[in-house]
Amino acid sequence: MVQLQQPLLFFLFFLILHLYATGVISANFTIVNKCNYTVWPASTLSGSGFVLKPGETSTITIPAKWDGFVWGRTLCTTDSTTGGFSCITGDCGTGKVKCEGRGSPPATLAKFRLNGPNNQDFYDISILDGYNIPMEVVPSTGKCNNTSCPVDLNTGCPTKLKVTQNGTVVACKSSCWGNCNETSADVNVKIFKTACPQAYILTNDVKTFSCSHTDYQVVFCPASGNVRLENTLISFTLKKEIKYFKNQFN
């Protein structure tokens, strides 16, 4: 009986290796909310979307070959008359908690391409089209790099780029809307680049990381709340740039 089982075990072992090598096995994304406010995570995976209160986590299964985004929506409400659901930031326009397609900018994005060239996963944090909340991507294997924008960029957002709700800045628009490079970027973009050096901000300065066959955590407010922007910008030169920028745009 044991001899009959051994070939089966070998078959299953090599089958699993084959599935990993060919990118057939799906990935688990654990979404973690470390913010001190509620976040409604969403993704470009059809029918995704749910609520996470502070301190809560939830795991979603992502197809083996997937190219898409994960982001967080904030300040979401359901209209008591129409029943329509909407969010001040990151809204996906479905009128429901579940999303179809991308959310509206400005919103911080975690971008993924699973099982791409050479069966590698590729991922980055993008604020190319604006920012709403801090985010981090953490591969489950210790052999791959985390990437994040852990800073609260809303605190230093110029007046003309602010998205406000009841007097509070809840998001910051991009001043170049996904079309900036090193030469065309204004001071605002350079400030964000200094505050979040791992994030994808400039079109010609892609900050993409890679890993092979693993699960991921997507963390909102990874620094246990919000790291204020002004606490990260300490160089004298950068402070002069901030002052110049505010004089130009505020």
Mind telling me the CATH class?
Mainly Beta
CATH topology: Thaumatin
**Strand percent estimate:** 25-35%
Radius of gyration: 20 Å
Number of domains: 1
Largest sheet: 6 strands, antiparallel
Encode the helix/strand succession as letters. HEEEEEEEEEEEEHEEEH
Sum up the overall morphology in one term.
Answer: globular
Mean pLDDT: 80
Helical content, roughly? 10-25%
Q: Give the tally of β-strands.
A: 15
InterPro entries: Osmotin/thaumatin-like_sf (IPR037176), Thaumatin (IPR001938), Thaumatin_CS (IPR017949)
Keywords: Disulfide bond, Signal
Protein name: Putative thaumatin
Organism: Medicago truncatula (Barrel medic)
Question: What would you note in describing this structure?
Answer:
Strands 2, 4, 5, 6, 7 and 13 form a 6-stranded antiparallel beta sheet that branches. The protein has one domain: Thaumatin. The termini are far apart. The chain is built from 3 helices and 15 strands. The chain is α+β, with helices and mostly antiparallel strands and 250 residues long. About 14% of the residues have low confidence. Helix content is 17%, strand content 30%.
